[in-house]
């Protein structure tokens, strides 16, 4: 599991995907989320604007990321 530090109260899912290096473009993040390829706290999430907070976990493919 990779730990990703954020400096704000929350981060939106599409921004998190860019911040963590999963994608390089916002358009890529939009596609991954829309296709249901990203899980938040174990459940598929199709809301690219979903707010993520410290303690949330994001999964993409076989990798899991924890927000700290």
Automatic annotation (TrEMBL):
Q: Does the keyword Ligase apply?
A: no
Q: Which UniProt keywords apply?
A: RNA-binding
**Family matches, as Gene3D superfamilies:** RNA-binding S4 domain (3.10.290.10)
Q: Which Pfam families match?
A: S4_2
Q: Which residues form a coiled coil?
A: none
Q: Name one GO molecular function term.
A: RNA binding
Name of the protein described by the UniProt record: Ribosome-associated protein
Q: Which organism is it from?
A: Clostridium fallax
């Amino acid at each position: 599991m990779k730990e990703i530090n954020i400096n704000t109260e929350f981060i939106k899912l599409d921004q998190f995907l860019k911040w963590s290096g999963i994608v390089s473009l916002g358009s890529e993040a939009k596609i991954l989320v829309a296709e249901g390829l990203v899980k938040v706290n174990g459940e598929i999430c199709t809301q690219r604007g979903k707010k993520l907070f410290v303690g949330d976990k994001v999964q993409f493919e076989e990798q899991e990321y924890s927000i700290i």
